[in-house]
UniProtKB/TrEMBL annotation:
Transmembrane stretches, start-end: 21-48
Identification of the protein by name: DUF58 domain-containing protein
Keywords tagged on the record: Membrane, Transmembrane, Transmembrane helix
Amino acid sequence: MNWIRYEHGFKSIHQGMAFTFIFFIWSFIYLQTWLAASFGAVFAMLAFQNVYFSKVGKGLIVNFKAKQKRILIDGEEELIMEFDNGIVPIWNGTLTLSIEDPVAPSTDNRKHYSGVYDLSVPFAVGSNKKVEIRIPLEGKKRGMSRVTRLILEVPHLFGDGSVNMELEDPISYQSLVYPRVTALGRELDSSPFKPGEVEQKTSLFTDALQMIGTRDYVPTDRFDQIHWTASAKMQKLQTKEFLPVSSQSVALILNTIEKDRGYMDFETKVERLVSYADYCMKHNIPYSVSINLRTFGATPYLQLPSGQGKVQFQKTMVMLAKISEKNAKMRYEDMLLNMESTGQLPQTIVLISHENDKIRAVAQKWSRQYAVIMDTVSEGSGNEWDNPVLKKTGTDSAFPSA
């Protein structure tokens, strides 16, 4: 393991060794036995210190017990490091760990503004020994936290000076702090515009494999839908009735661009998306996630393909923990038009964004074919987020009024 060494105070040690050696020779020549012994002892002490600090820390290896931890806001974890020392013991050292601020020490209640915490703990390890250091951490805010720097400071035993060792190898440890999960507060109905597997009271489509009864035949019924056994019993033609179904898949589309640099606008939108994803997971609804952050590849924005269940929710939480308001963004309207050009939009679309004329125009255009919900929670409190684009009709799949 590679360490960068910074040595301070060795010049004074070398000067002290030179002076004490000269005085030792002078005392020896003039037969000053006790004075020579004193200077010899000081010289030996300085020489020992010089040799010790030139060798200390060589062969020191650090291992992080886990490469990645996942926690929620206000959740707790332990950063565990194991140090394997070489031949020379380390005494009275101080270990300084720099970690990004999505997590913080559990006992630290101070406010930090730099974005990085510097944690200092005492450190000592014997010759050819191992020592384990545990640092309790707590999730403070959504994001990804990395260990950016690891420094070991060993002070001189006598006098001023120290040896500082900074770990040169990359540190692979990181903590993912998931967004806060809150209840959606509404029900997300299925779409009436496409056949599927979700039962619905009124729908244009039926599941031919789920017959729920029969009724009297009318001239507009198809011949293959006649139930001949029931017709024989009733002595008149009976038509099969099937379960009305519709499609239920959702696209969650997040706008990361803040309106007028609103305070906590980005985090509010992220938490709102998590509420939708949590609702879809609990009701086993397939959903996809699209975010207008620049990426490389055929799709110019960040996208999570459609999926369902706990696996999809886990992927969503990991993706949301890694994004930042500092990432490069693309215009929200451009992302919407790009998604429309692919022709793969689901039947229910949730736009998590602030409103403006261009976004409203795209939403109104889509509402002719899809069930579109404009969630503007970031613009205010109350029920302003509950803003379905579709007008209330008999087939409207937007949120029902509470």
